[in-house]
Amino acid sequence: MVQDTPAPTATRTPRRRGGSKPRGGGGGGNRGGQRNRLRRNVGVLVINREGLVLSGLRAHANGDKAWQLPQGGIEGRERPIVAAYRELQEETGLRGDEVELLGERKNWIDYWLPKDWVRGRRFAGQTQKWFAFRYLGEGLPDLALAKDREFEALEWLEAGWLEDHVIDFRKKVYAQVFAEFREFFK
Fold it and tell me: Disulfide: which of 20, 161, 163, 185 matches 32 by Cβ 3.0-4.6 Å?
């Protein structure tokens, strides 16, 4: 289940891994020779008092598959927990004092982008470390405070709805994350 999360200074960077199989959430088959094409990333699950998850409507996208959870790349030697707080503020405008850290997923999850999305890109997918937070405020965060304009709107959604409606290559990732952090939805 979810491990007890140490203070941010104690969060570890993943060790280099070998092997030929991507770990969970994949959907891209065996791409072991392309492991170096996975971008290190954090995913952020923010849950309110009603057990709903903070979701962002991607800018420049349309339809219900445009909703997703905040996530973003880990910069240089940045610790994953530091990246999670940074991404949370950049994408949603939430500051660290507006959330409470609930848990950190022990294992990383990989996913691969569809082949037609990869042409000309440095990365073919992501390896993600996930964190769960409790939102301490009321209503929606003020998106105008976000530094990054990745989302055009924020909404509190049921995890099941989001899992069913997220873009296909993220479905397995969301299913794993929601299952692992299910105790926090109560």
Answer: 20
